[in-house]
């Protein structure tokens, strides 16, 4: 007998439009934030624009492919994806360091960041496993510990790069998924408390992290040293006012903020587009999270629900951390702003994940 084709409806157009807006804004702002430095250092003001645009196009092709592919097919390849991710995380530790960290595997034409794959590999693993586990998730030993061990193992390898921020994102997303599928609150509270304590210990046992933590209290006390980047970020946000100075008119991007097209691109948006531009970006992320939750609630099965929760959580947590860092609401840490910060690996895998989320929406139990 022939297998019946999975019936698919329309994608969540609101989510699709939101993703495209974020990517388009990202490409424009990467060009605006990087053109001065690229012209000054590389003699090519469009250097980062061309790369980001290339990855945006590649990401779009992969996203469309994921939209058209039944998300249940991923189940078959979850184990392979986990193994490949683990191998890449080990390989990256043998690569030459960049700015003191080993996070990229040089491929000649680009750099591959395995930690970007790891975030979603954990989501795929948990979705497949929890779909089969059912009510056993309420048991601490059988329902909680296995996921903490697997996620913790991958996070520990990422910590060796070192990359505490992405390791933290993985563990936070793990806890969110466990809570969403019915883990007991007392277990989640205990895990959350332990994670906070662990991050605290890691922060004070590494000199550079401790300096960042102390600097967070008053960045202006060492405005030319450890507090320099955050001070410049706050100056950019403050000088933008309500309406901003206009696209391309940022002063802080002119060799003041180090590499402003990466993790600190949001202050450039604030300086050029003002409070209105920043609020619009935040609104887009709120809409993305809202549609992601809606898709999770209306997914036709538990597997789709967990995938939607996990994918949405990865984007939401990264956006919250990035914006909190550049506004001085939490210590400086290296988390890119999804879809907007420069970075091929981040943009590509985020767009693939969005394609999977859109495919879940196509098989929703309710009309969009």
From TrEMBL:
The keyword RNA-binding does not apply. One of its GO terms (biological process) is regulation of cell shape. It comes from Clostridium tagluense. This is Probable peptidoglycan glycosyltransferase FtsW. The chain crosses the membrane at residues 12-33, 53-71, 78-99, 105-127, 139-158, 164-181, 188-206, 264-290, 302-327, 339-360. Peptidoglycan polymerase that is essential for cell division. One of its GO terms (molecular function) is peptidoglycan glycosyltransferase activity. Its EC number is 2.4.99.28. Pathway: Cell wall biogenesis; peptidoglycan biosynthesis. It holds the Pfam family FTSW_RODA_SPOVE. Its main location: membrane. GO terms for cellular component: cell division site; plasma membrane. The gene is ftsW. Belongs to the SEDS family. FtsW subfamily. Keywords: Cell cycle, Cell division, Cell membrane, Cell shape, Cell wall biogenesis/degradation, Glycosyltransferase, Membrane, Peptidoglycan synthesis, Transferase, Transmembrane, Transmembrane helix. It catalyses: [GlcNAc-(1->4)-Mur2Ac(oyl-L-Ala-gamma-D-Glu-L-Lys-D-Ala-D-Ala)](n)-di-trans,octa-cis-undecaprenyl diphosphate + beta-D-GlcNAc-(1->4)-Mur2Ac(oyl-L-Ala-gamma-D-Glu-L-Lys-D-Ala-D-Ala)-di-trans,octa-cis-undecaprenyl diphosphate = [GlcNAc-(1->4)-Mur2Ac(oyl-L-Ala-gamma-D-Glu-L-Lys-D-Ala-D-Ala)](n+1)-di-trans,octa-cis-undecaprenyl diphosphate + di-trans,octa-cis-undecaprenyl diphosphate + H(+). It is found in: Cell membrane. It is a multi-pass membrane protein.
């Amino acid at each position: 007998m022939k297998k019946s084709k999975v019936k698919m409806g329309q994608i969540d157009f609101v989510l699709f439009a939101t993703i495209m807006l974020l990517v388009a804004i990202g490409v424009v702002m990467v060009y605006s934030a990087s053109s001065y430095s690229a012209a000054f250092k590389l003699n090519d003001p469009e250097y980062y624009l061309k790369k980001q645009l290339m990855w945006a196009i590649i990401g779009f092709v992969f996203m469309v492919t994921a939209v058209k592919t039944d998300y249940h097919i991923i189940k078959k390849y979850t184990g392979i994806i986990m193994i490949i991710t683990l191998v890449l995380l080990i390989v990256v530790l043998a690569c030459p360091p960049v700015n003191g960290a080993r996070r990229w595997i040089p491929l000649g034409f680009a750099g591959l960041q395995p930690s970007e794959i790891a975030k979603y590999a954990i989501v795929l693993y948990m979705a497949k496993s929890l779909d089969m586990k059912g009510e056993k998730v309420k048991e601490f030993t059988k329902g909680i510990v296995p996921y903490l061990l697997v996620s913790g193992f991958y996070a520990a390898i990422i910590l060796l790069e070192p990359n505490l921020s992405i390791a933290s994102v993985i563990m936070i997303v793990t806890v969110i998924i466990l809570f969403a599928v019915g883990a007991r609150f007392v277990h989640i509270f205990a895990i959350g408390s332990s994670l906070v304590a662990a991050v605290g210990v890691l922060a004070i046992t590494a000199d550079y992290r401790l300096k960042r933590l102390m600097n967070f209290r008053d960045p202006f006390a060492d405005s030319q040293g450890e507090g320099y980047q955050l001070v410049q970020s706050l100056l950019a946000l403050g000088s933008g006012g309500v309406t901003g100075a206009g696209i391309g008119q940022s002063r802080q991007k002119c060799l003041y903020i180090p590499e402003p097209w990466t993790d600190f691109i949001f202050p450039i948006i604030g300086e050029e587009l003002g409070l209105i531009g920043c609020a619009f970006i935040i609104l887009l992320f709120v809409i993305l999270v809202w549609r992601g939750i809606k898709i999770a609630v209306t997914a036709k099965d538990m597997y789709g629900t967990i995938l939607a929760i996990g994918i949405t959580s990865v984007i939401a947590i990264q956006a919250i951390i990035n914006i909190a860092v550049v506004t001085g609401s939490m210590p400086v840490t290296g988390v890119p702003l999804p879809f907007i910060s420069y970075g091929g690996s981040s943009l590509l895998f985020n767009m693939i994940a969005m394609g999977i989320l859109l495919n879940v929406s196509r098989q929703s139990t309710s009309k969009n």
